[in-house]
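can u pls check wat happens w/ (2R,3R)-2,3,4-trihydroxybutanoic acid
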Amino acid sequence: MKKLLALCLTLVMIMALATSATASAAGSDVITLRASHSCADTHPYHLGLQRFAELVDEKTDGKVKIDIFPSAQLGDERANIEDLQMGTLDIAVSSTGPLGNFVEDFLILDLPFLFSGYDHAHRVLDGEIGQALIAKLDDIGVVGGAFWENGFREMTNSRHPIKSAADCAGLKLRCMENQVHMDAFAALGMDPTPMAWSEVFTALQQGVIDGQENPIAVIYSQKVYEAQDYLAITNHVYSPSLILFSKPVFDKLDADIQTALMEAAQEAAAYERSCCEDGESAQIAEMEELGLQVTYPDVSEFQAAMGPVYEKYAAQFGQENIDAIVNY
Ligand code: EAX
């Protein structure tokens, strides 16, 4: 039995080494790192990774190449994080939504209406509050490169237009695997249904769920409007993303390559964020042209419904930590 266990462990290690950071044919000295994300190859995650790859190529004089795999080809966000921990995936760009399942402190970022706008979110995440969270990733076998962006999340559905918070009641809404989001949507009388992103479009088409919520760049690039009739601009949660490295892989790289990866991750952040923000208005207008009915409900009603959520999470995170973000 012990021999069998030893053999299995050996096989796992060989697979991890073989499937992760790949030094190509002997003598070429080129290291190829595989990068995964769950969105379309026109989404800012992909554009940001392309910019990241260019910067890494420049900073390493061509010694490190980045192979990008979009559309959850290498797994959804939660699975990607697990693979980074094991060293079977080198790099992933993920929203912070699933991260709360690995580092509970990240859940504070998911509180509805916590951030007043993009500038506020960037100040917090790029300042000591965000950087302290990134440092905690080391404990779970992941190296945080930099906060990138997913964006402010909006609601789509196919039952009826959302013109007020009351219109949310009864809607079966797909959400990320994130307890704060589930509590927030339940507070609006919705039926929050956690589901991996790659399964959502089919579930919408089949009517298994009534709607979903995501930033405009995701709704647009994934053509969610082809499976939905209504879009409500609620900005109910600001969703950060992160470019993440596998710690088992990262720690094996030379110091100069580690520095190049971290610098490229940080330098690509501004570009990736602009790709999320700059296109929003035009993308909303184009989707409206394509038949999506867009509403702009009074979000103060949504905020008022979040009282119990803030009460619950003030006890968990500490009111002083919530205030520190709100007032940053
Ligand atoms: O990270 O799962 C989600 O709704 C995420 O926002 C999406 O995959 C982009």
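The chain has one domain: 30-321.
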